[in-house]
Amino acid sequence: MTHLYKAIFIVAALGLSACTNPGALNGGNGMGNGGAGMGQGTGTASDPHSAAYFQQTVGDRVLFAVDTSTLTPEGRATLMGQAKWLMDNPEFAAIIEGHADEQGTRAYNLALGARRANAVSEFLISQGVAGSRLRTVTYGKERPIAVCSEESCYAQNRRAVTVISAGAGA
């Protein structure tokens, strides 16, 4: 393979990987705000078997306190709803995204985001969701939903978002 083909292949791969964030296409607002967004077949919020219902009614995210990956009582309640929804809709799989606020180093926040995503994944598994349907990813502080250097923004960015996609379930 020539260097030109290798370069084309690398550029194409990078371009495709950049397309894995549907939330980036809507400017970070609305559906998928703060997460990668929903997968295929989002449906409507009035359909209890739709991804839109999951995001808007069940809730697709949990928030964390500073420097922790410990689930809050509110977070656990949201995750119990997510677990029930995932059990009722086995055709969906989920990617759990771990995020952090802008405080701290990049490496620290990537590790913290990973711990947050893992905490959510472990909780969902403990509620009966098959681990084979869940994946985790960390974005650290790279994908904030609120951009400012105030606690109100930091609090929104310390989160784990459960992004579901159809067709990849059990």
Automatic annotation (TrEMBL):
<feature type="domain" description="OmpA-like">
    <location>
        <begin position="51"/>
        <end position="168"/>
    </location>
</feature>
<feature type="signal peptide">
    <location>
        <begin position="1"/>
        <end position="24"/>
    </location>
</feature>
<keyword id="KW-0472">Membrane</keyword>
<keyword id="KW-0131">Cell cycle</keyword>
<dbReference type="Pfam" id="PF00691">
    <property type="entry name" value="OmpA"/>
</dbReference>
<dbReference type="GO" id="GO:0009279">
    <property type="term" value="C:cell outer membrane"/>
</dbReference>
<keyword id="KW-0564">Palmitate</keyword>
<dbReference type="InterPro" id="IPR050330">
    <property type="entry name" value="Bact_OuterMem_StrucFunc"/>
</dbReference>
<dbReference type="InterPro" id="IPR039001">
    <property type="entry name" value="Pal"/>
</dbReference>
<dbReference type="InterPro" id="IPR014169">
    <property type="entry name" value="Pal_lipo_C"/>
</dbReference>
<keyword id="KW-0449">Lipoprotein</keyword>
<dbReference type="GO" id="GO:0051301">
    <property type="term" value="P:cell division"/>
</dbReference>
<comment type="subunit">
    <text>The Tol-Pal system is composed of five core proteins: the inner membrane proteins TolA, TolQ and TolR, the periplasmic protein TolB and the outer membrane protein Pal. They form a network linking the inner and outer membranes and the peptidoglycan layer.</text>
</comment>
<keyword id="KW-0998">Cell outer membrane</keyword>
<keyword id="KW-0732">Signal</keyword>
<dbReference type="InterPro" id="IPR006665">
    <property type="entry name" value="OmpA-like"/>
</dbReference>
<comment type="similarity">
    <text>Belongs to the Pal lipoprotein family.</text>
</comment>
<keyword id="KW-0132">Cell division</keyword>
<protein>
    <recommendedName>
        <fullName>Peptidoglycan-associated lipoprotein</fullName>
    </recommendedName>
</protein>
<dbReference type="InterPro" id="IPR006664">
    <property type="entry name" value="OMP_bac"/>
</dbReference>
<comment type="function">
    <text>Part of the Tol-Pal system, which plays a role in outer membrane invagination during cell division and is important for maintaining outer membrane integrity.</text>
</comment>
<dbReference type="InterPro" id="IPR036737">
    <property type="entry name" value="OmpA-like_sf"/>
</dbReference>
